[in-house]
Amino acid sequence: MRALITKIKPASGFSRFIHVGLNVFLALLVFVLVRIDFFQLALLVILLSKWRMFAVRPRFWPANIRANAVDIIVSVSLLVFMVQGDSQFAQIVWTAAYAFWLLVIKPAASVTMISVQALIGLSFGLTALFLDWGDAALYVLVLSAALICYLSARHFLDSFDEPYAKLLAYLWAYFGGSLTWVLGHWLLFYGFMAQPTLLLVAVGFGLAAIYYLDHHDKLSKLVRLEVLITTCTITVAVVASLTINVLSTVRALLR
Q1: Which of 22, 46, 144, 191 is the most exposed place for a label (fewest CB within 10 A)?
Q2: Of all residues in the chain, what percent carry a pLDDT higher than 90?
Q3: Which of 189, 99, 106, 117 is closest to 153 using CA atoms?
Q4: In angstroms, rounded to a whole number, what is the distance separating the alpha carbons of residues 218 and 237?
Q5: CB 102 within 8 A of CB 27
Q6: According to the model, what pLDDT value does residue 98 have?
């Protein structure tokens, strides 16, 4: 009897096996639905898999939704990548990435891994947004980008018990929405990544790295300089590329 009780503990034994099996089944089910062109049903399956958010009193729902927001963003983004995949192999790769997210990255609770989750949520969410909705109305892009920035920032800052987490998240959301409004009039893609995504991920990574290192007393002047130089280099390169493209288009129209 003692052996059976040990096996049904959540962290090991039968329960752990069932947990892994269900997550793998979820990833495979989404893959199958994408392959047979049931994209909306795949999205519904992903959303229904988050039913535990509502298995509490309604007053806890907003907090649960915010806590699971990055997971939802990454899951929906990976679905978009599967749909946009140009081959079965690419879809299999994204399915494996989804299973890895569910089994390894998502359950992690250390400050480092929560920071990784937030960065993945920001980069995947913005990439999927412009990849799938790049031709949507500008206000949709602005609001969606601001929401993704806000939820990713809250996920990151809450792990540090930051007293000004809400304010800082709002500021980052405002910056993300403003940048999207400016660059959304002329979207350029570097491969599958739009320039607002590249800029926001670069700046976000730089700010998060400085905050993380400073929190752990590992932020030296040299490291700060390296992060700032890398971020500024990417920003200048993207802005220069956009300027060259705009000037080339204007020159072609004037001929």
Answers
A1: 191
A2: 51
A3: 117
A4: 29
A5: yes
A6: 96
> If DSSP codes are grouped into helix, strand and coil, which group holds residue 193?
strand
Q: What is the per-residue DSSP string for 83-98?
A: HH-SSHHHHHHHHHHH
pLDDT for residue 12: 56
Q: Which residues, at least 6 apart from 218, have a Cβ–Cβ distance to it below 8 Å?
A: none
Assess contact for 134 and 84: CB atoms under 8 A: no
Q: What is the pLDDT, as a whole number, of residue 248?
A: 75
Instruction: Pull the structure tokens for residue 97.
Output: 């990435």
Residue 189 sits at φ, ψ, to 5 deg, of -115, 130
What whole-number distance in Å separates Cα of residue 153 and Cα of residue 158? Answer: 8
Give the tens place of pLDDT for each residue, 155-195.
999 989 888 999 999 999 999 999 999 988 888 887 788 98
> What does the alpha-carbon distance between residue 136 and residue 144 come to, in Å, rounded to a whole number?
11
Least confident of 2-11, 75-84, 123-132: 2-11
| Whole-number percent of the chain with pLDDT over 70 | 93
- Domain residue limits, the chain: 1-107, 110-255
Task: Give strand pairing partners of 193.
Answer: 190
Residue 35 has pLDDT above 80, yes or no: yes
As beta bridge partners, residue 190 has 193
Q: Which of 42, 40, 38, 19 is nearest to 30 (CA)?
A: 42
> Who's near 157: CB < 8 A, 6+ residues apart?
165, 168, 169
Contact between 247 and 241 (Cβ < 8 Å): no
C-alpha span between 86 and 47 (Å, rounded): 25
Please report, as a single letter, which amino acid is at residue 154.
R
